[in-house]
Amino acid sequence: MARLDIRNLAKRYGDFYAVRDVSLQIADGEFLVLLGPSGCGKTTTLRMVAGFIEPSAGHVALGGSDVTRLPPWKRNAGMVFQSYALFPHMTVAQNVAFGLEMRKLPKVDIDKRVEEALALVRLGGYGARLPRQLSGGQQQRVALARALAIRPDVLLLDEPLSNLDAKLRQEVRVEIRELQRQLGLTTVMVTHDQEEALTMADRLVVMNEGSVCQVGSQRDLYERPATRFVAGFVGRSTFLAGTVEAPGRFQTDGGLNLACSGGAPGRAVLSLRPERVEIAATPLSGLDNRLSGAVEFVSYLGSLTDIHVRLSPADRLVVQVANREGGLAPDVGQTVHVGWPASAGQVFNE
Amino acid sequence: MTLVIDQRPRSNGLTATALLAPATIFVAICLLAPLAILFRYSLNDFVAAKKMMVEAVTVANYIRFFTDPYYTAILWTTVRISITVTAVCLVLGFPLAYVVARTQSRFKHLLIILIVLPLFVGNAVRAAGWMTVFGSKGFLNATLMGLGLIDKPLEIMFTEKAVVIGIIAVNLPFMVLSLQSVIEGIDRAVEEAAFSLGAPPLTMFRRVLWPLALPGILSGTILTFILAMNAYATPFLLGGPLFKMMAPLVYNQFTQQTNWPFGGAIAFILMAVTLTLTVAANLIFQRRSAR
Q: Are the Cβ atoms of A52 and B192 closer than 8 angstroms?
């Protein structure tokens, strides 16, 4: 395992930048997740690390040595593909042995390491099967075993869980994470699933339109999103459009005057997390912002309920409450009171 | 309700029969019947003096073919040319098929049409076109001589070379299309997986792409080989009067010599050799790849 350094990496297709100036340092044994919507450049970045795409600019270094100009077969990067990409004409054992044969290991060592790798993903005894005789989850584990068998310097995961059903996905997440910790694997995973990203990563990188928006822990991204995009992409936010009149004073386009913290005078949006807003049937006290409005929409989510409240013709707020006995359960059309401290909102200037 | 369920299997069987019948009847009348008749003819006698077929049951025609070096040489030439053509088509066709299968370009359909386009022109018309290019005063020789690269015209026309080039040109599209459809079904990520596991391109090709493309390689080579074995217009027009392959020989026996028994025998020898070589090659191919 080794450290991975990505410096000023860019990929340009004509006038279009798929990736622009991405720099990341991934420590030895760290699990980094690249998160973003489709087309944000996360997969292109990963493929440049693997060597499948030649960068237009920048460098990739593995364990301190520059691999930017090396072809993929000289990089020692283990990759798990979204489609698993198992060799359909080879048995499970032959699949896992492939990378070891390329390294010209003696037959005895290959057999031993294939067995180890399969045991690691709990597929001991499946060596003689063909990939098509396995379930999706098992195929995924073979792909992982194949990538691990070569003892890669870095493990690259390209949406490895997106073809599994929801229940299995949760189990495999934990499994991969435990394996990664146990083996101390330097890992880069690409996903568009924020829940997956939040549960697996040591550190997250949010990307959009080819650039890195923010790098940080789960808490950093959720509590202190750097941009409006991050606030919307990681977790949920209600955005109220308006103007910062003076430091601490925000006026929405619907005419509401709100207390806020930060922000420079001018056009801006105020971002609010749905669970940071308090809601009650009677007027609230002791909060910087106290408003009332009619309930427009209620969606019951089991442990939580989303309540959409109309504050002004232009402003609608989503409030999330935990469902417990005697809690607020308003009907559509009912008037409710909402409130939040100035510090709960975050202002992004436009 | 019960009645409907009871009838379903029977009506399905009827539908299947109805769907199969036209093609079956067509094959029976237009292919099997003539073959049967021709085979019967091939066992007949032929009186050369009167140019007449005489009813008989004899293998004399087959014996005559295999005992006369003139005819066995023609069979050997045909097999040799067909194998050469098939090998060249595979070597030239694979890279082309790969590029067409893997391209993301929006001109992909145009590319496929360009490959198929030669098939729109009949073999005879195309062969006539080749004659104007390869003739001693043709385009190629005129150009090379005009440029002073050669001082005597190259002898291409009416040689085996011209025939091989001509059949390759006819057969290449079939090879490319067979390969392309199979390569398209191979996940690109499988190639990348091989690369990331340490396989350089040639190793990846040998260990992954080739075995996975084998069904297309087999169908492409079979098609190309059969077409080459039975080529008629190309060897006839590009090979000239002295160059002989099997299909023109059969035609010659039927029309010039009106020797139907011997023509029939040659036709069946051609068919049997083609079939045997195809099956044998397949078995060797598949056994080797199974290892």
A: yes
Chain B CB contacts of A74 under 8 Å are 198
Chain A residues in contact with B211 (beta carbon < 8 A): 89
Q: Tens digit of pLDDT per residue, chain A (350 long)?
A: 689 999 999 999 999 999 999 999 999 999 999 999 988 999 999 999 999 999 999 999 998 899 999 999 999 999 999 999 999 999 999 999 999 999 999 999 999 999 999 999 999 899 999 999 999 999 999 999 999 999 999 999 999 888 888 888 888 888 899 999 999 999 999 998 888 898 899 999 999 999 999 999 999 999 889 999 999 888 888 999 999 988 888 999 988 899 988 788 889 999 999 999 999 888 888 888 999 999 999 998 888 899 999 998 889 999 999 888 877 788 898 999 999 998 888 999 88
Domains of chain A, residue spans: 4-229, 236-349
Give residues with Cβ within 8 angstroms of B156, minimum separation 6: B134, B140, B162, B165
Q: Judge if pTM exceeds 0.90.
A: no
DSSP A120: H
Q: Least CA distance to A86: which residue of chain B?
A: B190
Closest CA to A164 of A193, A127, A188: A193
* Buried residues in A12-37 as b, exposed as e (16+ CB within 10 A): eeeeebbbbebebebeebbbbbbbbe
Residue from the list B198, B200, B211 with its beta carbon closest to the beta carbon of A99: B198
CATH architecture of A236-349: Beta Barrel (2.40)
B258 contacts chain A (CB < 8 A): no
In this complex, which of A50, A85, A103 lies closest to B187 when CB atoms are compared?
Answer: A85
CATH no. for B59-290: 1.10.3720.10
Just give the CATH number of A4-229.
Answer: 3.40.50.300
So where are chain B's domains?
1-42, 59-290
Contact A85 B208 (CB under 8 A): no
